[in-house]
Amino acid sequence: MNWKADYEKKKMSVEEAAKLIKSGDVVWATPNNNAPYTLLNAVGARYKELKDVKLAVQLLIKPLNCFIPEAKGHIDVFTGFKGPGERAGEKTGWKVDTAAFQLHRHDELMLNVIKANVGLMQVTPPNEEGYCYLGCNPTGVTEIFDTAELIIAQVNKNNPIIPNENLCVHVSQFDAIVEVDEEILVSPNIEPSDLDKQVAAHIVERIPNGATIQIGIGGIANAVGYSLENHKDLGVHTELYVEAMYYLTKKGAINNSKKTLYPGKAVIGFASGSKEMYDFLHNNPNIINREIQWVNNPVVVAQNDNFVSLNACLGVDLLGQVSSESIGFRQFSGTGGQLDFVRGAQKSKNGMSFLAMQSVVEKKDGSRISKITLTHAPGSAITVPRTDVQYVCTEYGIVNLQNQSIDYRARALISIAHPDFRDELEFEAKKAGIII
Ligand code: COA
Questions:
Q1: By CB count within 10 A, which of 69, 105, 147, 417 is most buried?
Q2: How many whole angstroms from 74 Cα to the centroid of ligand 1?
Q3: pLDDT tens digits along 12-66
Q4: Is 157 exposed, middle or buried (0-12, 13-18, 19+ CB in 10 A)?
Q5: Rounded distance between C-alpha atoms, residue 7 and residue 176, angstroms
Q6: Ligand 1 near 337 CB (within 6 A)
């Protein structure tokens, strides 16, 4: 059968496709802005009819209709990384379990932990040969065919075609097809604050022209990106393609000309930003999308000379342990690729890794707490162990902790803490015997 006839045969309504999900199924969906939200919500609408369905999602931009406490036992959700969607669901009292893993091991997560028997994916309409692209996020697509016996595609005309290597899926690989032209969700582009810019300034002066950069998720990392607008010949090798990278490309600061791996091309794992950014990525021959376990592999990252990783964190203790994903026992996001890029950057020739944050967080009552503390709150996950941390930066300065002693780390970190907290931190550090 030719692929066009096959496509027509497999086409059905969203409701019909949602009915293919059975109690006990383990259902996985493409992540973030490439989640098939309409299809997922059609499955969610059936939650009362279903029992013990496990749904694996990642970094959702908006909550699903089954993110309610009443759905417990019907559809239980597992996320690889909490995004705004999962966090919005939690506000209703709904609970989500989060995977603890490094993103370059996503294939292992798919094959050994999730083991989904149903795959839901949002794709582009097929090309002349019947191949569909995976839009902004193909993470997991290379593994789902090894475990799933049912694959449902949500074909969306709004999904950008991002050139890739071996990540296309042929119509013959789908069992059911629904056509839904929902808008591809955008990520809010938050203007960097003055404080963000002060943090960024310490980092930007250390980044040479010609560096290949990775920018992580969150306000500060993006702020550092925007501050690179006067740089030249920057390149991109990144898990997440962010708005700042699109901006730097338009400004001419990024041209990928000095890259040692894939010269001339920005290598990306996935992309989340504005509609204009998605239009820019669409059919762009200077972008190459590859599977996350390759992009994020520290050994691959290190093949880029002059590599710079720029990531945000939530807190650092005086031993130099960095927490970027949880606040005490409250899982805020996930490990993602932070450790992957911290490690890869430091193994790159002339590479550098930066972890950035503002020095304090302001609570609702106006009081402030230091993000540099003697110890982390019980339950706070260590995203980057002290032995992996290199540069840590706040608005008060930047310190290099690479391979440094305990005493050095504590003194260095106190020097970039907010001045109101330095005496107390020093007192505590001496009492604990960290400063000798
Ligand atoms: N104690 C208590 N609360 C804290 C805190 C601390 N030390 N640090 C931050 N917070 C609060 C903030 O006030 C904010 O609260 P709100 O949601 O009520 O406004 C919330 O935690 C998030 O902090 P913020 O600094 O605004 O986060 P962000 O959106 O800029 O993201 C990270 C920063 C670190 C959470 C994000 O980069 C992340 O998840 N990193 C881990 C994964 C990663 O870096 N991957 C890299 C490749 S993409």
A1: 417
A2: 31
A3: 999 999 999 999 999 999 999 999 999 999 999 999 999 999 999 999 999 999 9
A4: exposed
A5: 9
A6: yes
Contact 308, 351 (CB under 8 A): yes
What is the CATH number assigned to the segment(s) 3-179? 3.40.1080.10
* Pocket of ligand 1 contains residue 36 by CB under 6 Å: no
Kindly list the catalytic residues. 239
Distance 268 CA to ligand 1 centre (A): 23
* Cα pseudo-dihedral 194, 196, 197, 201, rounded to 10: 140
Query: Is domain 194-432 in CATH 3.40.1080.20, yes or no?
Result: yes
DSSP 333: S
Going by alpha carbons, the residue nearest to atom 14 of ligand 1 is 361
Short-list 236, 26, 178, 9, CA closest to 111:
26
Q: Is the CB of 313 under 6 A from ligand 1?
A: yes
Q: What is the DSSP string of 19-57?
A: TT--TT-EEEE--GGGS-HHHHHHHHTTGGG--SEEEEE
For residue 186, give both structure tokens.
Answer: 């955008």
SS3 (DSSP) at 429: helix
Q: Where are the domains of the chain?
A: 3-179, 194-432
- 414-434: per-residue pLDDT in tens? 999 999 999 999 999 999 999
Kindly report the pTM of this predicted structure.
0.97
